[in-house]
Write a structure and sequence with these properties.
alpha/beta, 8-stranded mixed sheet, two-stranded antiparallel sheet, 14 helices, 10 strands, 11% strand, globular, binds pyridoxal-5'-phosphate
Length: 392
């Protein structure tokens, strides 16, 4: 990833410094409103800006009363924060498998097989910015009374596959609550930061209270004389964001669609070029083609990363070292959660039969993808990868 910070970003942040009000206030409200309207112009959800996506997921689960004794199903192939958010609440994490080598999304069949009468919530991840089948998940969950909290950290301003009526739904708004990340390597950034969105008025109110110490009034409201005292009605946290981040967020949001569009072009170009490398598997290749066709009907896409599976038996460390020598940074998304020391031994993490995840994990490699990546730079990446694999 690479950061794109412009003069407008700097001006926006400096304006906050000049204003002499730094903590959560009017800009944060504007950021929340703008994000909600960008996410769904027809029917903007409530949006609650927080300090990170991890914080958003934590209070999302608390707002839905998830706690000890409850089971939360999470893919093992995700960033550790998805599972941790459930562990914070005292719930038990049930890890689930991916769909296949070429579709690294959460497997619905595997989720269904892992459902018990204790299952309270599913946390699908829109891995790499490619939508998990949240509409299918809704069909599985709705009549069982199971909630969905979407980890949409990779997919701001992207839409689901079409529903039966041909309608695309903004990712993050299909489940009860959707959570976004503005960490610095995401499609838009506020350095650290996140957002929870929901269409449910009561959940939105609860999220706002949980974000700020469980208090009924904010500093700004007291400052403006709108509130003189406050009560504490819930065990909340300090998960607030601030005006500097909100200003940067507003500025970054104005360029997000352009960045996402460039990421779509880059992903398509990667697919074309990488097809020439023998034995390399490029997940989502087929899905991306049909998703791009849906863009004519107004579907929005937001690819986040470009993961590949190295040929079987290929030494990933050697490939990465080779590419590093060529000046190319690579990474791995992700080491599966059930392989971490903490989680493999945790009595509230259940990991059985994750065969597909186990098979793909050692082969995963993430190539550079960011809005300002040039075509020539991509050609260098592809050539270096081909050489690194050939040398292996
Ligand atoms: C980045 C990320 C998170 C955590 O986001 P933070 O804002 O850093 O807390 C959660 N899930 C996934 C899939 C992510 O990529």
């Amino acid at each position: 990833s690479d950061l794109v910070l412009t003069a407008s970003d700097r001006d926006a942040v400096n304006e906050v410094l000049d204003s002499n009000w730094l903590t959560m206030g009017e800009r944060t409200k504007r950021f929340e409103k703008a994000f909600a309207e960008a996410l769904d112009p027809e029917d903007p959800p409530h949006a609650i800006a927080v300090s990170s996506c991890t914080a958003a997921m934590h209070i999302a689960l608390l707002a839905l009363d998830v706690g000890p004794g409850d089971e939360v199903i999470v893919p093992s192939l995700t960033f550790v924060a998805t599972a941790n958010a459930a562990l914070y609440t005292g719930a038990t994490v049930i890890l689930a498998d991916v769909e296949s080598e070429t579709d690294l999304s959460l497997s619905l069949a595997d989720v269904e097989a892992r459902m018990t009468d204790k299952t309270r919530l599913i946390m699908p991840v829109h891995y790499a910015g490619r939508p998990a089948d949240v509409l299918g998940l809704r069909r599985l969950c709705d009549d069982r009374g199971i909630h969905i909290v979407e980890d949409a950290a990779h997919s701001p301003l992207a839409d689901s596959q079409a529903d039966a009526e041909g309608v695309f739904h903004p990712l993050g708004t299909v489940g009860s609550i959707g959570c976004f990340s503005f960490f610095s390597n995401k499609n838009m950034t506020t350095a650290e930061g996140g957002m929870a969105v929901t269409h449910d008025d009561d959940l939105a109110a609860r999220l706002r209270v949980l974000r700020s110490h469980g208090m009924t009034a904010l500093t700004l409201e007291r400052h403006k004389g709108h509130a003189h005292g406050y009560d504490c009605i819930d065990l909340g946290y300090n998960y607030r964001t601030d005006e500097l981040r909100a200003a940067l967020g507003l500025s970054q949001l104005s360029r997000l669609v352009d960045g996402n569009t460039r990421r779509v072009e880059l992903s398509a170009r990667y697919h074309d070029k990488l097809a020439a490398i023998d034995g390399l598997v490029v997940p989502f290749a087929a899905r991306d083609v049909s998703a791009r066709q849906d863009m004519d009907q107004g579907r929005r896409l937001a690819p986040h990363i470009l993961p590949v599976l190295l040929p079987e038996g290929c030494d990933r460390q050697q490939v990465q070292a080779h590419m590093r020598d060529d000046g190319i940074q690579t990474s791995v998304h992700y080491r599966p959660i059930h392989t971490f020391e903490l989680h493999s031994q945790h009595d509230r993490v259940i990991a059985t039969g994750l065969d597909k995840t186990d098979a793909i994990a050692p082969r995963l490699l993430t190539l550079p993808l960011y809005a300002t990546l040039g075509d020539e730079a991509m050609d260098l990446v592809v050539a270096a990868l081909a050489r690194a694999i050939a040398a292996n």
